[in-house]
């Protein structure tokens, strides 16, 4: 079977890795693999929202898939299950965190109320203020997106996949309602039995060339919630082991010992019109908040990146056939879900049997 995958982010890379041993796979990436959203993501591996029990257990299965991937690569530095530490100081956040821990525990998910002293046993640098509500989620982790993409595509190449970088798919080729592959920007036609759209937030543009749509939040609209902001710092080895959610600042380590910084308010204020100067000012604010958390922190900003979520209108994955010969895999939380989705999608494409776990997430379902 000939399969063309458009997009070399975490979704395309996980799919190429999973499909290459059994099919003739070609992946086309217009830039560098991992250069877009996946490489700049906060990339917290979690099933931390108990609101939708079915989607929660889907994400728990996705964490297991990552554990298998990590084991297959010999537990690499780019994928760590070092847990998540969170605290809240003010209402309503205190109530929300305590309630979430209780509901997750009811679902059998590892979520533990703890204290500042208890937290210091696993994260000695963290100092939640007295009276904070503190929680640990020991089964969660984080991934360094670009390294993960590189490793997955390396293994896909070893299994025979072709990876064409700097190669844009300018359109889907359609014959008698069947998608037969892609036309590249250089005018070459890549012929496929199945073409997979894994082009992240740019997927609607590609799909429109075959008359297909996708219910994503419009990333280009002013004030859109799809674009976000992350910044990384120079190395400060050993400061934190895992993911941290604190009032006004989220952070996690990079494999080089730096920090990835993110904050919900600064993220929400970022859209595609935000100027470079404004992005830099917000990143400086992130660093100030990190200095307030770790007095004496000497790290400087390393990279400041705007990145765009492929954000389905109802927040859930969009996975499945859209036309004969065309299969779409686009999702928020794609870092958490990538390897699990790749397992399920490979089962459907190679086994030709519909995967029940994907039934709620078809792209043609009614969305708000
Ligand atoms: C600020 C932020 C924080 C996030 N935090 C988390 C988190 O904590 N946990 C989590 O699980 N997820 C998180 N996400 C979401 C997650 O990062 C994304 O869901 C995931 O990276 C999407 O991966 P992707 O492969 O679909 O997209 P991308 O990584 O964007 O890859 C798509 C690729 O397709 C290429 N492409 C597009 N069009 C074409 C074309 N026509 N031809 C060829 N190539 C093309 C692009 O160049 C790109 O490389 C976050 C996202 C953001 C923005």
UniProtKB/TrEMBL annotation:
<keyword id="KW-0560">Oxidoreductase</keyword>
<protein>
    <submittedName>
        <fullName>Glycine/D-amino acid oxidase-like deaminating enzyme</fullName>
    </submittedName>
</protein>
<feature type="domain" description="FAD dependent oxidoreductase">
    <location>
        <begin position="2"/>
        <end position="346"/>
    </location>
</feature>
<dbReference type="Pfam" id="PF01266">
    <property type="entry name" value="DAO"/>
</dbReference>
<dbReference type="InterPro" id="IPR036188">
    <property type="entry name" value="FAD/NAD-bd_sf"/>
</dbReference>
<dbReference type="InterPro" id="IPR006076">
    <property type="entry name" value="FAD-dep_OxRdtase"/>
</dbReference>
């Amino acid at each position: 079977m000939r399969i063309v995958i458009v997009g070399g982010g975490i979704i395309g890379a996980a799919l190429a890795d999973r499909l290459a041993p059994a099919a003739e796979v070609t992946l086309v990436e217009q830039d560098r693999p991992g250069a877009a959203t996946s490489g700049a993501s906060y990339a917290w591996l979690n099933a931390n929202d108990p609101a939708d029990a079915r989607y929660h257990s889907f994400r728990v299965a996705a964490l297991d898939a990552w554990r298998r991937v990590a084991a297959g690569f010999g537990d690499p530095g780019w994928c760590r299950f070092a847990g998540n530490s969170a605290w809240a100081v003010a209402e309503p956040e205190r109530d929300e965190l305590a309630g979430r821990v209780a509901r997750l525990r009811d679902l059998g998910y590892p979520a533990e109320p703890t204290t500042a002293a208890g937290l210091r046993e696993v994260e000695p640098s963290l100092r939640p203020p007295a009276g904070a509500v503190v929680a640990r989620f020991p089964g969660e982790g984080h991934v360094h997106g670009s390294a993960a993409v590189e490793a997955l595509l390396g293994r896909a190449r070893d299994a025979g996949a072709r990876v064409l970088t700097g190669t844009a798919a300018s359109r889907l080729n359609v014959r008698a309602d069947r998608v037969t592959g892609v036309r590249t920007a250089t005018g070459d036609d890549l012929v496929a039995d199945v073409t997979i759209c894994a082009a992240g937030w740019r997927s609607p543009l590609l799909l429109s060339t075959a008359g297909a749509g996708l219910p994503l939040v419009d990333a280009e609209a002013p004030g859109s919630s799809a674009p976000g902001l992350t910044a990384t710092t120079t190395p400060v080895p050993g400061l934190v082991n895992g993911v941290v959610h604190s009032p006004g600042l989220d952070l996690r380590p990079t494999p080089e010992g730096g920090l990835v910084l993110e904050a919900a308010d600064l993220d929400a204020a970022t859209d595609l019109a935000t100027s470079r100067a404004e992005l830099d000012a917000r990143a400086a604010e992130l660093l100030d908040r990190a200095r307030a958390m770790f007095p004496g922190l000497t790290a400087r900003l390393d990279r400041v990146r705007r990145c765009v979520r492929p954000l389905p209108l109802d927040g859930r994955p969009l996975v499945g056939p859209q036309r004969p010969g065309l299969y779409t895999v686009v999702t928020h939380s794609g870092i958490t879900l990538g390897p699990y989705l790749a397992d399920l999608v490979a089962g459907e494409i190679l086994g030709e049997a519909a995967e029940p776990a994907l039934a709620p997430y078809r792209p043609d379902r009614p969305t708000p």
